[in-house]
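Hi P.,

Sorry for the delay on this. The queue was packed all week, but I finally got your sequence through. Input first:
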Amino acid sequence: MVKRPTMQDIARRAGVTKAAVSFALNGRPGVSEPTRRRILAIADELGWQPSSAARALSDGRAGSFGLVIDRPARTLGLEPFFMQLISGIQAELVRHTTPLLLTMAEDQAAEIALYRDWWARRLVDGVFVVDLQLGDARVPVLEELGMPAVVLGAPLGTGSLPAVWSDEAAAVATVVSHLRQLGHRRIARVAGPARLRHTWVRTTAFERATRGAGMAGRTVETDYSGERGAAATAELLRDAAPATRPTAILYDNDVMALSGLTAARGLGLAVPADLSIVAWDDSALCELVDPPLTALSRDIRGYGAHAARRLREAAGGAPVGDLQDAAPSLTLRRSTGPAPDTLGG
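Then the structure:
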């Protein structure tokens, strides 16, 4: 194992004291300019990097941020949204060589325990909070700790924590309006877990939009997995008569939409002749199937980058407010079409 270079190694090579090395590396007076340049050159040659623990002791900063995700590994590994989100966060953090401490937790209690541990040991300067829940227990704990945090989601139930969000209610209304213009009067939605705040926002908007348009709407809760997405699709379509089954389904992520497409075909239905499908979060998956899926598109990488910039500002002591990102837009493809000409359709 290669030994990590230390300040003592630099001092020995340069023929100076360890204190002189500290002065040079931290840009403090106490050494001549030629000596400072020689020490910096030796440090670069040895590949020296400051210790995060030492930095935390000296200025109270860890130089890193944290992200804890409370979702089953089997669903997270297939979820394009989080891969793009993390990519956007990391792309912004790497500009300042700031590492991201990423881990998973079994539940909110475990996540809160991690926050307390990280903050007590000064392992992070702040955290990204995702998947805000109704009555979320993390918010008051983070406020109590005084730990900088940015919520990715609507500024509802976020307390004093700043939020980076997009108008998901407007996105739902856009989908409902599009389907109504195509003649659909019975539509369904395959949703994520009801405990999540953004699921509640979407469900409330879906009920309001369908009711306002005089349409029949139904929401089925799932866990975002392809298996549950397929099961929910079968539940909506299998036993319903053509005159009562939904003619269009909106899915809360693209993984479930792809599974729903397969499930519908397994029941002998053609897309979009018998059933229109709309996906949320337009990853490359939506364009790789036949027919390609109509989807709500947004710049998820940019969303993550905005949150990273916000968290850096908050960790630096700047006052940070909510930031509204661009609302998802509807990208039309061949999975949506006119409602089938059936009794009551």
